[in-house]
Amino acid sequence: MSHSAKSAEAQSLFVTTHWSVVLAARDESSPDSAAALEALCRAYWYPLYALVRRQGHTPCDAQDLTQEFFARLLAKDYLSSAAREKGRFRTFLRVALKRFLANEWDRVRRLKRGGGQAPRSLDTAMAEDRYQAEPGGGLPPDCLYERRWAMTLLEQTLSRLRAEHTAAGKAAEFERLKGVLMAERGAIQYGALAAALGLSEGAARVAVHRLRKRFRELFRAAVADTVSGPGEVESELRYLVGMLGET
Fold it and tell me: Which of 54, 58, 198, 240 is the most buried (most CB within 10 A)?
């Protein structure tokens, strides 16, 4: 592949990114503003909920604060400082949330629960069950947030990969093979997979290779959505993979 072709491929990752969603949400005249904010809320509310909880807030207060934070991103102009050249999206949201907690906690505490401009479809009740179930250990709040962010990107990637296989009529194959995505290559039991799928071992190896390759492509694209340019993708990938690997 030529240098220009590689450059074009890298740039293609940024045609539709979470940064562009942020910038669309900043423009109050944009008809896509509400949809952009909804997309932000759906994709990234849980890592922020976990951060609020780790800051010492009760489950009820954390639910209110997380919802109110997203609801007021536009109204309070928290997005005014967002720009793709200023760094990673995960960092922007973390800093904005901390500013919100420092400046707005007294006001939010006085609000009647559910009475603010709460965004739709945030299952914050289920979030507490998830928060309690997930290992956090003695991690500092910021570190916990970074791990939850990495997990969110991983979950989005798996969801998209599952959807692709379902659309292709291969949902059962995906369920059989998904366990190999994070496995060491030498630990994969190709014979057992072949028997379970009714394939030859050679065909099973091909299926595993294709699945893992597509998983890497989708995860890379998800990460690319959250950084300011193609040059940051590799370092962000290494960082997030490291966060996923921590116990």
Answer: 240
For 86-125, how does the pLDDT look when each residue is reduced to its tens digit (9 = 90+)? 668 888 889 888 888 888 766 666 655 445 554 555 676 7
| 3-class SS letters over 81-145 | HCCHHHCCHHHHHHHHHHHHHHHHHHHHHHCCCCCCCCCCCCCHHHHHHHHHHCCCCCCCHHHHH
The closest of 153, 124, 133, 159 to 43, measured between CA atoms, is 153
Q: How far apart are CA 50 and CA 53, in angstroms?
A: 5
Answer yes or no: are the C-beta atoms of 160 and 225 closer than 8 Å: no
Tokens standing for residue 18? 């979470």
- DSSP letters along 187-213, please? G--HHHHHHHHT--HHHHHHHHHHHHH
CA distance 228 to 205: 36
Query: Cα angle vertex 20, ends 16, 23, to 5°?
Result: 165
Question: With a threshold of 0.85, does the pTM exceed it?
Answer: no
Dist CA 122 CA 43 (whole Å): 10
Q: What DSSP character marks residue 30?
A: -
Q: Which amino acid is at 78?
A: Y
Tell me the C-alpha distance between 59 and 129, whole Å: 10
